[in-house]
Design a protein that fits this description.
Length: 412
């Protein structure tokens, strides 16, 4: 009887909250693939967004787990400061820019998603529009919608092509003209979902455009650094960080970063990260971020902050972590090479992965192609620009099956 009184209550929801899918689309696809596999079908699941080993088990970095097990009660149980432990914020920023002595205006967040959400609340008004790339990580649109905002895009360079400066210039100037400010989320280097980074020349073009538009109104560049530790080209990643540091230090464009422990430390469930503006110490910005924390989640978990502080003081642990990152980067590179070889064997173009967990396969009709692949037990995530493939879960031995299924799906 009680159960009956608790169902059919959608009238209690305001009208705009009544028509959502039951689950996130990516998680729903993954759940469908897992269910079919559990029922005995041969399933190739490339929807996964976490790093798996070749036996299909979640990769958990030993160096991180050893630090986790050593945490004391007082490193776990107390409240952390509302904006996060200042020493944690400084240590997290210094992982990316060792030369900096301050985190600037910064706050701890529940993962990178928390940092992204906080940037919307502080740099755009409801009804305004965020700018990002096409393609982009799907939840970017969800985050924008949940904050009463819109999402516009400019094209990510295709393989072997340069950044379309004209398209980016038009997108930036249109937003500045219509709303008087620009917030750009840029997932570079190690772009999700293409697996490719901007070139030095591309980055110079984009930085120049941001400088020009900043003369017309406030411009905020938020770098989404989810995957930097998993790259085929660590030297190129370091160079990109220096390029962005130079732009931030100029002070014309407000440059910040969404930092996360989820992928870098395989602490997905700890939900810890930060929103940091290392080249801006404005007390008003710090106060705004702190107020947003208090009014949204109040405090972030103390344990992962304590862990990072231990890591920052332990050179041996840092060396172990770096070695694990290098190993798993090599695993991802081998998977990418196997997929490129399989695609080329089927007459398709290679994808040229550089970093991160994903690549995107072009498709004329991604939705239809995804459906045909599912019929063969192959799961991908359809995007407007193609099919996202999780290298983080795709074993080299599975690459030929994937490429053959893709060729058949494209031929129909």
């Amino acid at each position: 009887m009680l159960q009956g009184t608790l169902t059919g209550m959608t009238d209690q929801l305001i009208p705009t909250r009544r028509a959502f899918p039951a689950d996130d689309p990516i998680f729903a696809l993954n759940a469908e693939a897992v269910a079919r596999k559990a029922a005995g079908e041969s399933i190739l699941n490339a929807t996964v967004g976490a790093l798996l080993d070749d036996s299909g088990q979640l990769v958990v970095l030993d160096s991180v787990m050893d630090l986790w097990r050593d945490l004391t009660a007082l490193e776990i149980a107390p409240y952390a400061p509302i904006a996060g432990d200042p020493a944690f914020l400084k240590a997290l920023v210094k992982r990316h820019w060792p030369q900096l002595d301050s985190a600037g205006a910064a706050c701890a967040t529940p993962g990178g998603s928390g940092a992204l959400a906080l940037s919307l609340r502080n740099f755009l008004e409801p009804g305004q529009t965020l700018l990002s790339t096409a393609p982009f990580w799907g939840p970017y649109a969800t985050l924008a919608t949940e904050n009463g905002m819109h999402l516009a895009t400019a094209p990510w360079p295709a393989v072997g092509q340069a950044l379309d400066g004209a398209a980016w210039d038009a997108a930036l100037r249109n937003l500045m003209k219509t709303q008087g400010r620009v917030l750009l989320w840029l997932n570079d280097p190690c772009h999700n979902p293409t697996g490719r980074s901007l070139s030095t020349a591309d980055r110079a073009v984009l930085s120049g455009l941001l400088r020009e538009v900043s003369a017309l109104g406030p411009v905020t560049l938020l770098l989404d650094f989810a995957y930097l530790d998993y790259t085929r080209e660590p030297g190129a990643v370091a160079a990109a960080l220096e390029d962005y540091a130079a732009l931030g230090a100029e002070g014309r464009v407000l440059v910040g970063a969404s930092l996360s422990l989820s992928k870098s430390m395989t602490l997905y469930g700890a939900r810890c990260g930060a929103l940091a503006f290392p080249w801006c110490g404005d007390p008003a910005l710090q106060a705004a971020l702190t107020q947003s924390c208090r009014g949204t989640w109040s405090n972030c978990a103390k344990a992962p902050q304590s862990l990072l502080l231990r890591l920052a003081k332990d050179g041996k642990a840092q060396a172990r972590l770096a070695a694990e990152h290098r190993h798993w980067s090599e695993v991802l590179a081998a998977r990418a090479s196997a997929l490129d070889a399989a695609l080329e064997a089927e007459g398709m173009d290679a994808l040229h992965w550089q970093g991160g967990f994903f690549v995107t396969v072009p498709a004329a009709d991604p939705g239809a192609a995804s459906g045909r692949l599912k019929a063969e037990g192959v799961y991908t995530v359809p995007l407007p620009e193609g099919l996202r493939v999780g290298l983080c879960a795709l074993r080299p031995i599975e690459a030929p099956r994937f490429a053959q299924a893709l060729r058949r799906a494209a031929a129909r």
